[in-house]
Specification:
Length: 454
């Protein structure tokens, strides 16, 4: 599936700069309520006064004066309700992702965002009847303003770091999902995000709220073409999990080598609630992503499953954070990475067990495979345990593919490249098996192509 080719789109008022004028332009385009514009302007001031993080990978090539912070495609019908209404050139791009077919097969709700516009939106009627809200963020700002105000930038405050404040200032569209109490959605709900504009950005904002005893599975897929100029993706995800509620959040990020993928994702989990993170990261030039779970009440839990492929000079600096605040909370992290062709995979893990979080149980497993002699894999764990009544298990490993395994497979007349792919697929299987079947099949194809250098 080749999504590394841009689409021929004409944009309106496309100028690179970041100023109060641009912020107001974005606000007008989104038809923001007054309180949202106030947050944007305040966030811009915080961004301008906050230094770049010093511990991150080198971001010196990221020039904010060359980034297009708002891209409005011209002559595009917004929010089409049937696939035939979407313009042909954009439809062809999303056809490659399989949106129409996937919707027929399994999806309860799907939409597609192209740069700064939602171009397709579909929902099964039975979900409307259950009072589920699943809208793009800009529409939710107007239709559910007071509800959204309770959650926007509350899990991730605008002062969190420089890119959080930038995001709050310039965000456009994204997802607002609200599942009422006791409602369980058995089918996945899904969104696709495409960044097409050269030297562009995408700052979609995702807020998911599950009230008590509800359940849902949400999937996001992202892609961008290769231009040879830096693009910026600074996404923000805020998840609010009620008592005894269960959410699975799956994310597949397949960017281009031009993209700086700098995201902030955080979940607040209440009593007996659970959050499962399933993430796949590849192809961005630099990725920095550490999904965070804050287990704020009794018996809440989180699972983080992460998979990264650092190829051809890419830096994937990823991991997870879990903050245990109250007693009897549990967490599990499984991280798998592959490094090839000067690729660098960095695993960062923060476990913070508060004094009040007695009887905490946490398990951390971080493993990396290095395909050649010129790539690297690093683990940087930070573990803080502030009581004596918790159990924490941590394991990390990195190395080349076991030659004994390769010898065994080759002795069965299996080509070495095929043997390598088989071993890598086995290595990644704890994560891939958690994806829906369609995604798992696609991941296996991508991994095979990457290992073969295609």
């Amino acid at each position: 599936m080749n999504l590394d080719i841009s689409d021929n789109i004409i944009y309106e008022n496309l100028k690179p700069w970041l100023s109060e004028k641009i912020i107001r332009q974005i606000s007008i385009a989104n038809n923001d309520p007054d309180w949202m514009l106030e947050i944007r302007l305040k966030a811009l001031k915080v961004f301008n006064s906050t230094p770049m993080p010093s511990w991150w990978p080198d971001l010196s090539k990221l020039n904010f004066d060359e980034i297009y912070f708002f891209a409005k495609p011209k002559d595009i019908q917004k929010d089409a309700k049937t696939w035939n209404d979407v313009p042909e050139n954009i439809k062809n791009t999303f056809d490659k992702l399989g949106i129409p077919e996937a919707e027929k097969q399994m999806l309860a709700w799907v939409w597609a965002q192209y740069d700064s516009e939602v171009v397709y939106h579909s929902l099964k009627k039975e979900l409307w009847d259950l009072w589920i809200i699943f809208e793009d963020m800009s529409v939710a700002c107007r239709n559910h303003s007071e509800l959204l105000k309770k959650y926007f930038m509350k899990a991730v405050p605008i002062t969190d770091h420089k890119f959080a404040s930038l995001h709050a200032a310039v965000w456009s569209w994204g997802t607002f999902l609200f599942i009422p109490k006791w409602i369980k959605v058995s089918e996945p709900l899904q969104a696709y995000f495409r960044m097409n504009v050269k030297a562009g950005w995408q700052f979609e904002h995702t807020i998911i709220v599950l009230e008590d005893e509800s359940e849902a599975h949400y999937i996001e897929w992202c892609s961008a073409p290769k231009y040879g100029t830096i693009s910026l993706h600074a996404w923000c995800v805020e998840l609010y999990i009620g008592k005894e509620a269960k959410l699975r959040y799956s994310s597949v990020e397949n960017w281009s080598i031009d993209t700086y993928n700098l995201n902030t994702k955080r979940a607040i989990v209440q009593d007996y609630g659970s959050i499962d993170w399933v993430g796949w990261n590849m192809w961005a030039g630099i990725t920095m992503l550490y999904p965070c779970s804050v287990l704020i009440w009794d018996n809440s839990s989180s699972t983080h499953l992460g998979l990264a492929f650092a190829n051809a000079w890419q830096i994937i600096d990823a991991g997870a954070k879990v903050i245990h605040v109250w007693k009897n909370t549990t967490s599990k992290v499984i991280s798998k990475s592959i490094s090839k062709w000067w690729g660098s995979s960095i695993y960062r893990w923060l476990l913070d067990v508060k004094k009040t979080a007695i009887n905490t149980t946490s398990s951390i497993e971080c493993d990396g495979i290095i395909i050649d002699e010129i790539s690297s894999s690093n683990a940087i764990p930070i573990i803080k345990v502030n009581n004596t009544e918790s159990i924490v298990v941590h394991e990390a490993s990195a190395g080349k593919i076991n030659e004994d395994y390769l010898f065994y497979l080759q002795s069965r007349w299996i080509n070495r490249k095929v043997a390598e792919t088989m071993i890598v697929n086995w290595f990644l299987s704890p994560v891939i098996k958690e994806l829906p079947l369609e995604y798992a099949a696609e991941m296996n194809i991508i991994i095979k192509s990457e290992l073969e250098g295609k």
